[in-house]
């Protein structure tokens, strides 16, 4: 459960399922209904860190529940949809969903990205964000 004002990261770790088939996580995608208002749930960023899918979620209608689907694709080509229902607490009124920082190339800032003192994002030689 989250409050509508929370800006939190959630994770999905498929390693147990993948190791049984000697498979790896190749890609992940997330889908959710288009927000009807600025207070609806918003997925600000999604990334894969060490085989774990990390999703950063904000917003949500107070007292409601948001439905999301995380789609995992493995190195062997298997695809699984994971339905997620995220209840939103009634403890707060809906909050305006904040803008999530983006890089110059338009990519969303990954959860756990390293921010330098000049507020720039640490990237490797290929321009990929370095995350903790």
Write the layout of secondary structure elements.
Elements: E1 7-12, H1 15-19, E2 25-31, E3 42-49, E4 52-58, E5 65-74, E6 79-87
Antiparallel strand pairs: 1-4, 2-5, 3-4, 5-6
Pfam families: Gp77
InterPro entries: Gp77-like
Structure described in brief:
The protein has 1 helix and 6 strands, in the order βαβββββ.
What does this structure look like?
With 132 residues, the chain is mostly beta strands. It folds into two domains: 7-87, Immunoglobulin-like, CATH 2.60.40; 102-132, no CATH class. Helix content is 4%, strand content 36%. It contains one helix and six strands. The protein has one helix spanning 15-19; strands at residues 7-12, 25-31, 42-49, 52-58, 65-74, 79-87. A three-stranded antiparallel beta sheet has the order 1-4-3, with no helix packed on it. A three-stranded antiparallel beta sheet has the order 2-5-6, with no helix packed on it. The longest helix is centred in the N-terminal third of the chain and has 5 residues, at 15-19. It starts with 6 loop residues before the first strand and ends in a 45-residue tail after the last strand. It holds the Pfam family Gp77. InterPro entries: Gp77-like.
Structural class: mainly beta
Give the overall shape. Answer: flat
Radius of gyration: 16 Å
CATH class of the largest domain: Mainly Beta
| Span between termini | 25 Å
CATH topology of the largest domain: Immunoglobulin-like
Domains, number: 2
Average per-residue pLDDT, rounded, comes to 79
**Oligomeric state, counting identical vs distinct chains:** single chain
Strand order of the largest sheet: 1-4-3
Strand content: 35-45%
Total E-strand runs: 6
- Output the helix-strand order: EHEEEEE
Helix count, per DSSP? 1
What are the segments in which pLDDT stays under 50 over at least 5 consecutive residues?
A: none
What profile does the largest beta sheet have?
Answer: 3 strands, antiparallel
| CATH architecture grouping of the largest domain | Sandwich
Percentage of residues in helical conformation: under 10%
InterPro entries: Gp77-like
Pfam families: Gp77
């Amino acid at each position: 459960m989250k409050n509508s004002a929370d800006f939190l990261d959630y994770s999905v770790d498929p390693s147990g399922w993948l190791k049984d088939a000697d498979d790896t996580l190749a890609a992940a995608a997330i889908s959710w209904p288009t927000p009807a208002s600025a207070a609806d749930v918003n997925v600000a960023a999604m990334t894969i860190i060490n085989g774990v899918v990390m999703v950063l979620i904000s917003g949500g209608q107070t007292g409601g529940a948001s439905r999301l689907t995380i789609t995992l694709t493995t190195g062997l080509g298997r695809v699984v949809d994971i339905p997620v229902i995220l209840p939103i607490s009634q403890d707060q009124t809906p909050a305006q969903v904040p803008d999530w920082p983006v890089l110059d190339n338009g990519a969303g800032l990954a959860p756990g990205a390293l921010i330098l003192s000049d507020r720039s994002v640490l990237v490797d030689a290929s321009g990929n964000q370095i995350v903790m």
